[in-house]
């Protein structure tokens, strides 16, 4: 099945996703697993382009129980979460591999850190250039103009009032 900006490979019933399949969102996030009546249902996994994954048991499109794993291998714990709290600010890689010697501190969880273009800021999904007000991907592709989400939100709110 082909949808605008998304795709589905797998079994279907009455024109709806049903059984085993792979659904790809426009953001390249993928769901791989069981479907029922067009919804995630049963065992399945969301795979995000940045390496994060969410393995879960789904009921009618809602995650009921599962495991969330960050790209660096850190697994989220709902209780007794002690990562990056007020008592321990180390990166996950520092917890696994130890802290680097003085003078070789880590500024990010990546070692060596990603080179940031001069005058730009790392904004988690790419680099923000305050001069051009553009966010580019880490591979230098255009992602968005700064403030697009804010503008869309403001104009939507303005429309609702009118």
Number of strand segments: 11
**Morphology:** flat
- Oligomer, anyone? single chain
Strand order of the largest sheet: 1-2-3-4-5-6-7
Q: Determine the strand fraction and express it as a percent band.
A: 35-45%
Backbone CA Rg: 20 Å
Please describe the biggest sheet, giving its number of strands, its sense, and whether it closes into a barrel.
7 strands, antiparallel
Poorly predicted parts:
150-162
Structure explained in plain terms:
This protein is mostly beta strands and 162 residues long. It folds into 2 domains: 2-69, no CATH class; 110-162, no CATH class. The protein has 2 helices and 11 strands; from the N terminus they run E-E-E-E-E-E-E-H-E-E-E-E-H. The chain has helices spanning 92-97, 148-161; strands at 2-3, 6-13, 16-24, 30-36, 39-47, 53-59, 62-69, 121-122, 127-129, 134-136, 142-145. It has a 7-stranded antiparallel beta sheet with strand order 1-2-3-4-5-6-7, with no helix packed on it. The protein has a 4-stranded antiparallel beta sheet with strand order 8-9-10-11, with no helix packed on it.
């Amino acid at each position: 099945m082909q949808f605008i900006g998304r795709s589905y490979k797998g079994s279907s019933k009455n024109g709806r996703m049903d059984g085993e399949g792979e659904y790809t969102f426009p953001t390249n996030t993928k769901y791989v697993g069981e479907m029922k009546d067009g919804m995630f249902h049963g065992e399945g996994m969301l795979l995000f382009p940045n390496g994060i994954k969410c393995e879960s048991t789904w009921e009618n499109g809602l995650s009921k129980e599962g495991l969330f794993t960050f790209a660096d291998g850190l697994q989220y714990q709902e209780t007794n979460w002690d990562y990056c709290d007020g008592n321990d600010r180390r990166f996950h890689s520092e917890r696994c591999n130890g802290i680097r010697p003085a003078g070789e501190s880590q500024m990010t969880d990546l070692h060596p850190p990603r080179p940031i273009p001069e005058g730009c800021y790392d904004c988690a999904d790419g680099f923000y250039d305050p001069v051009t007000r553009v966010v580019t991907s880490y591979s230098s592709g255009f992602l968005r103009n700064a403030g697009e989400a804010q503008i869309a939100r403001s104009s939507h709110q303005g429309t609702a009032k009118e």
